Structures are given as C-alpha cells and as structure tokens.
Records
---
Amino acid sequence: MTFETLGVIPQILSALIPLDYTKPTPVQAKVIPLVLEGKDVIATAQTGTGKTAAYALPLLQTLARKIPKEMTKRSIRGLVLVPTRELASQVYNAITSYSKDLHVNSIAIYGGVKLTPQTNKLQKGADLLIATPGRLIEHLQMGNLDLSKLEMLVFDEADRILDMGFWNEIELLVAQMPKKRQTLLFSVGMSKSVKRLGEISLKKPVTIAINNQGDFAKKVEQSIYLVDKERKCELLSYMIGSNNWHQVLVFTRTKQSADEVGKYMEESGLKTLVLHGDKAHSQRTKAISAFKEGTIRVLVATDIASRGLDIEDLPHVINYELPGDAEDYLHRAGRTGRAGKEGKAISLVCKEEKPKFKEIEKILKYTIKGEFYKGFETKEWAEKEAKKGTIRAKIDHEKANKRSIGIKKKREAIKESKAKKGKK
Ligand code: AMP
C-alpha cells in the first residue's frame, strides 16, 4: 500500500519524499481514505503512530480542493484543536511541511505568548487554524476570529483536552460551529467524556481503533528498576553518566521535583534543562531546541511537555517518577521508539509506587519484571538478605556505599568549582 493508492494527490506526495514517509502507517492507511470520502471518524491511536499525518493529509487535500481567488481574504475552513502549546507548534510544523506544495495557509494560536502577533495574522486570514481551546476562545471573544465558514474540525488528543477541564468551553464552541461540517476525533483512550464529545460533535462516525500495544512492546524496551526514593537522583545521574547516554528525557510528576532533579543533574556535571508549565514559552522553546541539537544531555520534563515533544530517534526516556495518570505512561514512553525506531523506556520505581505500576501493567496488558540496578538495591532487599546472612548482600552493600561516597564527592567538587567561578 502507498499514499498514492490511498488517494493522496501529487502535490502532497511530493512533500512526503523529503520526510521519508515511504509507506502509510496503519492509522494512516485506515483514516486517510475515510476522510477523503467525507466521513466523520473517531480514532483511538497512541502517540507515535503517525496520527498527525492521518488527519492532516486528507484535511489539507480537502481544503485545497476549494482555494479562494488570490485577492479574497481567506476564511478559517479547517480547525485542529489540540491540548497544549507544544502540540500546537508541533502540528503546525508538520502541517506546514505537508502543505509546502499547496496553496493552503495555516496559523497556530496558543497561550503563553503575546496576543497581538496572533491577532495580526488572524486579520490577514488563513484556511487552517491550529489552536489550543483557551487561546481560541480569547480570540473569539475579542472578535478576532470567525468560525462561520468552518468545514472541517479535528480534535487531536481529545482525552487530554477534556482532562484539562475544557468540557464547557468545547461544548459552547461546538454549538457555535456550522452544523454542516466534517469532524474527526483522535484520542488515546475512550473515556466516558470522550464518548460524550463524540456524541455531541460527530455525525454517524466510523470508529477506528489502532491496537498497537504489541508493536509498542516490540519497539520500546521497557525496564523497571526498584530503588529507594531517596536514592533515585543518585541512580539517575549514575545511570546516565556510566552508560554515556547523551540524549535522555526524564519525566517527573511535579514541577518541584523537575526543578530538584534538574539541579541535581547539573551539580553532577550533566548538562541539563528543565521544562514545565511555569517556564516561559521562550524558555521552553530554548530547552527543546537545545535538547534536539544535543547541546544538553538531559531534559527533565513534567507530563504537559510529554504530549507535544516530537524528537525523532530519541534513545532514552526515564520515568524518574511514575505519572499520576497511568495512561500518561504510554505518552511518556511513546517519546522513544517512534515510527518504527527502537528505544528504551526506564522507570525508577520506589516502594510507594508499586501499586501505580500495577495499574500501568493493566493498560499495557503485560507485566514487566522489576529488577535492581547493581549497587542501588533497596534497603528492604538488603535487610532481607542480611537476615539470611548472605555474603553477596554484604559485598553489594559495601560497594553501594563506596559508590555513593564517590558520587557525593564528585558533586561536592563540581559545586565548589561552580561557586569559585561565581565568585570570580
Ligand atoms: P505522530 O504520531 O503523528 O506524532 O507521528 C510520530 C512520528 O512518525 C513523527 O515523527 C512523524 O514525522 C513520523 N511519521 C508519521 N507518518 C510516517 C510515515 N508514514 N512514515 C515514516 N514516519 C512517519
């Protein structure tokens, strides 16, 4: 099967060549023909499956069929709603590259940046808008935007949009949109609220489920290291340093622990930046590009960042803490092993997090055996072994202590030299 046999036009095929999209992914093979036929579609697909192109290619192709005359102001005919600004700019970049040989204009609007440049762009007009709900509503309320000509609506990561508490806004938005339109809904899971959104916004939808759990397991090598909470930072820096890993995405549950882990990594001599909701848009963009370019080794991020980050060929994702929402495990681990490439997803799990991992395993539909990282065995294990009086426990514990002292000394030295530099 090729994109051509799915009915994709030559002006889009030419844009896929430099991107190396040689054949459609399963979600693309199913969704593209349906959208081109004008059907409403609900698709459940994980991140990394190629879902953006699955909706964006037929969306662009449909919009390109009716390009207005040069002199007339463009009206918004397509709208892609996304949960986060990172995803908005990622989708915008993908759409811009897919439409390089088409006369379809796109704009992305999202919060965290000034309104005026976006207002100016909106006033010039565009065919396609990629937006986060909050900022979209702001522009609508300011009268900067008219959705009366909308023909196609896409919800990307609908579950996350609703998780962020946008139900009322979305309901209101949908009620204002023209009834005669085509709607596509993409979501990782099918919660009650996603189903409800489907009911109020789609007409006779075709439902597609891409079950790629098996693929996911094959592509992403997943490990769990059981470790005491207070030794996680130490293990993390040791693991990255001793394995000589150079592009590691680390996830924490809270902004505070992201900052703490970031500080620890920097003090351990690993170039690190932190990405979370309190960072300004410019800081976030800077952190992402530094990570992509390889000028930093470690990027510590909270879950909001995990949705919008598309770094191809990312070799290592480490869960410093398990996510609050078990489904986010898939989103996080989905940053590695993208589009057929292999990757490693490692979780550092402390005693308190074991029940959470059981929940994750339910979603994964398979179990992952927890193991110890040599020298970082838990106190509980050491005590049990000590009771048994095994020699191995003694040796391992002594080694762990020595290693711990070594790492601490190294951090102290780095801190000291930084402080000296600061004084100069
Ligand atoms: P997505 O699930 O849309 O975030 O896509 C995940 C990654 O797969 C992105 O880096 C895309 O550029 C890439 N991708 C999407 N479709 C294809 C394809 N047909 N062939 C190769 N890579 C693809």
Note: The longest strand covers residues 220-226.
---
Amino acid sequence: MTTITNHMPTKELQALDAAHHMHPFTEDAALAKKGARIITRGKGVFLTDSEGNEILDGMAGLWCVNLGYGRKELAEVAARQMEELCYYNTFFQTSHVPAIALAAKIAELAPGDLNHVFYAGSGSEANDTNIRLVRRYWDVKGKPEKNIIISRKNAYHGSTMGGASLGGMSGMHAQGGLPIPNIAHINQPHWYAEGGDMTPEEFGLARARELEAKIEELGADRVAAFIGEPIQGAGGVIVPPSTYWPEIQRICDKYGILLIADEVITGFGRTGNWFGSQTMGIKPHIMTIAKGLSSGYAPIGGSIICDEVYNTVAGSGDDFNHGYTYSGHPVASAVALRNLEMLEEENVLDHVRNVAHPYLMERWQGLTDHPLVGEAKLVGLMGSIALTPNKETRAKFASDAGTVGYMTRERCFANNLVMRHVGDRMIISPPLVIKPSEIDILIERATRSLDEAYAKIKAEGLL
Ligand code: PMP
C-alpha cells in the first residue's frame, strides 16, 4: 500500500477516508458523497486544508485548543516524557511524577476544597466516573437508595452510555437504549427560545425551581446529585439568566444534593476565570474537566473532587472499583501540566478578560444589526448568536429547526471560518490567545457568511 501523506491529492484522501473512517456525529454515507475537508496543519488560530486554504478556527477544534495550534513547547514536553516513561498505570500501589504534579497543580487552581483528582481519558469518561462516584459516596454514607442524578434537557455530558444518559440530547437518547436507569431531566434555562413573555430573571428562577419540584417528586432521599454545565456549550452556548445558578445552589444546599459542575468547556480560562463555576458564582462538590486541561494536545480528562466526597469514598474500607488504563497517562499529564503553566506564564486569563473578551464583545454585539440576528451572547470567549425571522418576537423559522443554521454554517465553511450551528444558533469558542486583528477577520467572515445566508434564504422563500 502507498504511504498516505498530506501531499496526496485531496480526492484520494477523501476516497480513503470514506472507505475506512467512520466519523463521529455524522451520516457517513452522505459525507462520503460530499467528501470531508482534510485539515493538514494548524498554527495559532488558523488551520490549513489540503487545498491550501487558511481557515480561522472559531471553535478551537472542539472547544479545546485554547493555547492555539502549533505550540512547540507542548510537542517537546510530550517527546521528552515518551522517552522517559511512556506509560505506567496508577492502579496497583504505583504512581508517577506527571500524574502527581498535574493533580497538585489542578488542586492549586481549583477553588475551595476541590483538592483531589481522579483522571480519565476524556470528558465522557470523567462523567461516567462521576456517576459511579456520587452513587458510591451515598452508598458509603449508608444511603444506597440515594442514587438518582438530575440533569437538564439539551445538556451535553458526553457520548458514553453514562455521559449521554446524563446529557439531555433527544437525538442521542433515541439511539442505543438510553438513558440508563436513575437519571432524570428537567428543562433548560434557555430564555431566548423558551422564555415566552417572562423576563429572563423570572424565567431563570422558574427553571431553577424545576429542580426543587423534581426533588420533591422523587424524594430527597433518592436524589444523589445535580449536574450542569455552568454555561451550556454544545446545546448552543446558552448563558443562563443571572437568577438561575444562585437558586440551583440554594436548592442543592437545602436538600443535601451534591452539585457537579461539568467544566469540560468552561474550565481553564474559557469564561475569563479558571473555572466557569467562579464566573457563575457556584460551589460544586465535583467538577468534570477535559479539553482545555491540555489545550487538546493530548486526550485527558478527570474529576476534581472535594474533601468530603473524597474522604468518604477513600476511607470506606474498600476499593473504589473504577479506573481507566489511561487514567493519569504520563504523556497526557505532562502535556497538560505544561499547558497550565503556559496559561499562567503568558497571562492568558488576563488576555481573555482585558483584551479579547471586551474587543470581541463589542464586535459580536454589532452583529445584532444584521437582519438575521436576534441576540448576541458572549461570556469570556464562548459566544452565540440567535438567528430569527423576527427579532421582536424571537420567532423560530418556519423551516425545520437548524435549516437556516446549517445554511449559515455552510457559508462560513466556504468563507474559511469555522463557526458551528446548533439548530438556528451560531456558536463560537475561539482559541483563548486570539488577537484583536484576528477577531476582525472572524467578524468580517461571519458578516459575509450571514449576508450570503440571508440572500439565500430570501431567495428560497424561507423568511
Ligand atoms: N461535557 C461537556 C460539557 C462537553 O462539552 C463535552 C464534549 N463536548 C463532554 C462532556 C464530553 O467530552 P469528551 O468528548 O472529551 O468525551
């Protein structure tokens, strides 16, 4: 077989891709007809494809490449660690320096008494850990029946059986026999789409109080935990009204329910603080982490666990019968540690707070002048715009949800901008190191794409 390289013609790479590579979240037969875009290189906030196009990555990969592409220091750390100790497990009375050093660093950065790290290879795996961990916690406390976890519709917590069950994506629950037992879902705090005539503040309270109603319905002695993303990411970058999280916190405290913040996207600077929980003013017992932990340079995730939960499970007199071959993988841990150090050394959080966010906010808000854009939201560097045929009423399009969003995404793709759509919401999450001049390019390409999509939907009678 010939060696497959970046230098092969795009068509040949696409044919091989279609023949042998099944893609995540994809209708593969349809993709095979279109052909995948082949990404060959990355530098800073830009990607290059096999046709030589330079694409501005407004999503930092999948919300993860926070330090930007092509950082030599991270490649060097990985190479050094591979030579020194490529792998060892931490199961049987062994440990190693990368796992120890990274856990200590994470504990230093995490707020309050979130002092303990259980490693996973991804965010999904980490949420599977969380399901088993909170159930184990209550079991050790003598309350094995306290095993239901409450989440939200349209939440995203991963693709494993556990992660997808915690998540509230109806399309995922429709495939593969989900959710697993003892997971309950309440409605999401998505004011723009579901708030009707309520003010955002009233709506935030109403949606938070669904948690109280659900706990009352199930019985507090049956509910182990509530899980939520501080800001829903894959659901459409939905920023909850200001009243929402304080009320959720009050309810969790009142009923003795553990609070899990899924910080897979919001962790490590995305919202301008180390953790989204700090931005939203909540105090979780457990945080799920992944993505920005290593800026996507190595697959690694984990759970940051508070003293009380850790001490209970660690001191139970029995093993916690759970772990992954790659829990605390030395190479991934070494890369993640260097990534966190670089975030500090380069003052990336200050850059997000004082430079990139204010500049992007001004320009992002400017998009609401466009006839298609009903609202523009941005926290730190995660943002969304709502596409609507009527800004006054926040109406939905008559076409199937997502039709206009998909058309807009296609125009972005053609204009060398990666901006995702969730239904008819467009979302961004650029690398945290993005410069104002690059933000200008992002906005210029987004505006052109919106103009083209608008012309197309008018021509097709979709308005
Ligand atoms: N939780 C959240 C909030 C996420 O956004 C994601 C990934 N998009 C996950 C969990 C799952 O992480 P992974 O894809 O690494 O399994």
Note: The two ends are 51 Å apart (CA to CA).
---
Amino acid sequence: MRRRERNRRLGGMPDAPTIFERIIAREIPADIVYEDERVIAFRDIAPQAPVHLLVVPKTAQYPDVAALASADAALLAHIVDVARQLAAEHADGDYRLVFNSGANAGQTVFHVHAHVLAGGLAEGTLG
Ligand code: AMP
C-alpha cells in the first residue's frame, strides 16, 4: 500500500513525511554512516544489537520490501549490497538483515528499510 493510501486509511495527513524522509532531508539529525544517490544508512536510535544500522532508499514510494522487490529489484539488490559493505566496515562482516513488514511484525515506519544487525549475535535467535 502506498504511503498516501495508508495515511488516508489511517486518517492521517495525506502527505505527512515519514521520519526517514525528514532524516534524508536533514530536517532532523541522525548518525549517518553511508549515503549515495539511491540510499542512506544511519545508526538506529534504539539499537537492538552491538551494531544496528538502517539502510533506507531515498525514494519514499515503497512502504515495504515486497513492494520494493516487485517494482525495483535493482534497488533492493543495492540495499543488500550496502548492508554487506556496512557489516564489513562496522563489524566482522557477518550480519542479519531484517525487513519488518506490517504493524503486526513490528514495522513502525512505512518507508521500506533494512535493519543491519551485527557485532556478535547469538545463535538460534531472531529477536
Ligand atoms: P521498524 O520498526 O522496522 O519500522 O523500524 C523503524 C526503526 O527506526 C526502529 O528500529 C527505530 O528505533 C528506528 N528509528 C526511529 N526513529 C529514528 C531516528 N530518529 N533515528 C534513527 N532511528 C530511528
């Protein structure tokens, strides 16, 4: 569901920017660790692993990973590649890549983003 449609259904502002759009526009600060013409990456404000980064496409048109995958597989592949590079730079190269999809899966920002979790994660856990 596109953001405008979701906002309309939720009775919100029709075009209210997400927090990630405001970070991309430098309206609010973030600890930015990577940026190129298609994506930005910054530290999660509430880290759930020793290294917890978010890789976010600059376009706001895809609310979740399935919408992105069906419309722009190359951009999704780029996000995965940036995640791999960041895990090598900020940890030992091993990482967990999480895309929460839907409120019941814990998604709170409906602008697709990859969580890059790294830095010594326990085996047999996903949380
Ligand atoms: P999700 O719950 O999958 O939609 O992920 C949204 C993530 O954004 C959460 O892990 C939040 O901690 C993170 N977050 C929210 N606001 C900020 C912010 N201003 N700077 C960095 N990360 C944020």
Note: The pocket of adenosine monophosphate is lined by residues 19, 30, 42, 44-46, 54, 100, 106-109 (CB under 6 Å).
